[in-house]
Amino acid sequence: MATEQGLQPQALGARNPELGRCGYFVERKKRFCRMTPAPGRRFCGEHGQYEEENDRKRIPCPLDPNHTIYEDQLQKHLKKCNSREKPKPVYYVQDINAGLKDVTKIPEEQVPISSLSKEELQDLIRKLKKASNGISSILKDPTLSHWALKEVLNDPKNGESAFKHLKQQASILGHMEQLHLLGPGRCFVEFGAGRGKLSHWVDTALQDTENVHFLLVERATTRFKVDGKHRKRDSIFERLQVDIQHLCLRFNFGPDSSKEKHCKKVLMIFLH
After folding, report:
1. Which tens digits make up the pLDDT trace of 185-203?
2. Section 111-124 average pLDDT
3. Which end of the chain has fewer CB within 10 Å, C or N?
4. Can you point out the beta strands (E) in 61-162?
5. Are 230 and 202 in contact (CB under 8 A)?
């Protein structure tokens, strides 16, 4: 049997490999490799170079050295390797939301108030009073709530951080309901969706409403997504992995889009 150091596993007190498993002994782990070899082979693909009748050479993948490939299959592998650069989706348009690049920014000169003359200070006060005229100085708490989150808001298992986010989501839903934004024939675009919790609660609030579509925009790869729970329901959930800087929604709501037929209104939602 082959080992990392060329030692026989018997010398290391190792037993024979499990039935149907690779015969390569991994000294670092003090056990045999547990990968399954191809029919008629003693070693798996990663350790195939130890096959006595096999003179094919394995090399690290140039796109991802964490796995190896047969050297004579390099070109074929590069076309299907999961680490290859994939074609950009239709909704990706480079820097479409980045603003004008050719505009020269002129930084405004900042001076301390203490350096202003009496006349300049009085002029500044007049401008501030004029700008603030009619603005109510009493701040109202606009926090609302929604029945869809009533149960989880009262769940004592939720910690302080979770409760804060649930309260914010409930308030957003409360405002949406107050503005009559929850209804059929709508597409909700959630920016910075993360796990998709906000869309999840919007869908819960909509219950059995028809013709509802969700676009969850998130630039990072996200684990433990909750939109997978809605695959068997009437609502359609779609994820767009892209930075908002490069997101062009024209391709999602154009005349050839299925959403154009069902979504009469498009609403942007986010929680930050």
Report:
1. 999 999 999 999 999 999 9
2. 90
3. C
4. 68-70
5. no
- The dihedral formed by the CA atoms of 229, 81, 42 and 22, expressed in degrees to the nearest 10: -40
- Residue-wise DSSP of 177-238: HHTT--SSSEEEEEET-TTTHHHHHHHHHHTT-SSEEEEEE-SS--SS-SGGGGTTSSSEEE
Provide CB contacts within 8 A for 117, sequence distance 6+. none
Angle at 142 between CA 154 and CA 144, to 5 degrees: 30
HSE toward the beta carbon, residue 36, CA cutoff 13 A: 3
Question: How far are the Cα atoms of 43, 126, 168 from residue 33, in angstroms, in the given order?
Answer: 9, 80, 50
Question: Which residue ranges form the domains of the chain, and what is each CATH number?
Answer: 9-80 (no CATH), 147-270 (3.40.50)
Give how far the C-alpha of residue 122 lies from the chain's centroid of Cα atoms, to the nearest Å. Answer: 51
Q: What is the mean pLDDT of residues 256-260?
A: 58
